[in-house]
What does this fold into?
Amino acid sequence: MSLKGLIDDLVSANHILFKEGVVDGFGHVSVRDERNPERFLLARSIAPATVRAKDIMEFGMDGEALSPRGRKPYLERYIHSEIYRARPDAVAVVHSHSPALIPFGVTGTSLRPVYHMGGFLGSATPIFEIREAGGPATDMLIRDRKLGAALARSLGRAPFALMRGHGAVAVGGTLKQAVYRAIYAEVNARLQAEAMRLGPVTYLNDDEAANASRTNEGVIDRPWELWKKRARE
It folds into this structure.
C-alpha cells in the first residue's frame, strides 16, 4: 500500500472508532509504517473525529515525532511505541476509554467472550495495573516509556488488554483487525454485563473462541467497508 493509502486508512480508522462509540474526544489509533517498521503513524493531539491527512505524524520507536512542524503529539504516544517495540507482530494499536469496558478493569469479573464476534478475547483478558509500575500517585496516564513498557509487558502476546481505571488497548496484525477488535471488545463487554444480570453465563470455550476468531478475521473487509460508509455519513 502507498503511504497515501496508509494515511487515508488511518484517517478512516479514527472516524470509524468515533462513529462506533469506541472513542470520543479522547483516544487514538496508530499504524506501523510499511516503508520502515521502526516507525509508526499517529495523528497529532486532536479529537479522533476531526483527524485529517495533514494531522498524521511519523514517530520513532522512542515515541518521539520525527518532523513535528509545530504539531503537538498525544501525551500517551508511548502506549504505541512501546507495544511496537515489544511486539514485532503488531501492525496497529488502538487506545480507547470505551465505557462498557471500564467496569471489567476495576472489578474481579474477567472480560470473556460471550459470543462469536468476541472470540479473539480468549479465555482471559489481561489487566494493566499502573500502580505496579508507577506507584500509587500517577494520573493514570502513560506519560513515558517506562510506563509504556510496563503496559506492553502486561499485554504480553494477547490481542487486547484492559487498563485499570483508564481504558484498553487493542492490537492487530493489520489496521482493520485492530479496529475490529476495539469495536467488538466494547460490544462484547455490553453483552456480557447484560447477560450477567440475567443469570449464569455460558462463555465460549477455548476452541470455540479460537475457531470463531479465525473465521471472523477472514471477512474483516465486510464490516470495515460498512464502518467507513457509516463514518462518512
Summary: The radius of gyration is 17 Å.
